[in-house]
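User: Predict the structure for this protein chain, please.
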Amino acid sequence: MNVVLCDPEIPWNTGSIGRTCVATGSSLHLVGKLGFSLEERQIRRSGLDYWTSLKLVRHENFAAFENSLPENASLIFFSTRGARTLWEAPFERGSFLIFGSESRGLPDALLKRYEDRVYRIPISGAVRSLNLSTAAAVALYEGLRRNKAVT
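Assistant: Here is the predicted structure, written as C-alpha cells:
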C-alpha cells in the first residue's frame, strides 16, 4: 500500500504516519508544500529511529505525483466530504490512499475531479474529523486487512 499526504503541515503527524508505513511495509508519498522540513527534530522524534527505514517518495506537486503513477493505479481519496464510507472503498494491493493537509483537507479541484473515488471514515457527529495520522492508520490497516496483507 501507499499513503499519500498532500501539503502536510504538522511534522509529528507525518512522522507518525511514516512510522506506521514502516510497520506495514508501505510507502509514504509527500506531495506539494510541506509545513516543515524533513530535517526537523520533530519529524524524526515522532518517527523515532524508524525514519531511516521508511520508503519515502517526494513529489513537487500533484501533477508530478500523477506522472509517477503506474498505469491504472488504484487511487482512493479520503475526505470528511466523501459521500461513501471507507467500508465501500475498493482497496487493492498497491492502492494509493490520498489525504489532504490537516487544516484544509484535499483541494476542491481534486475532490471534484476524482469525486467517484472519495471516501470518508465514519465518525459520530460529536467530532468533525480524525487526526491525520489516525485517519491514515485506519484507512491503511483496513486496506491491508481487505487484501489479507497484514503480517
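The chain is about 30% helix and 20% strand.
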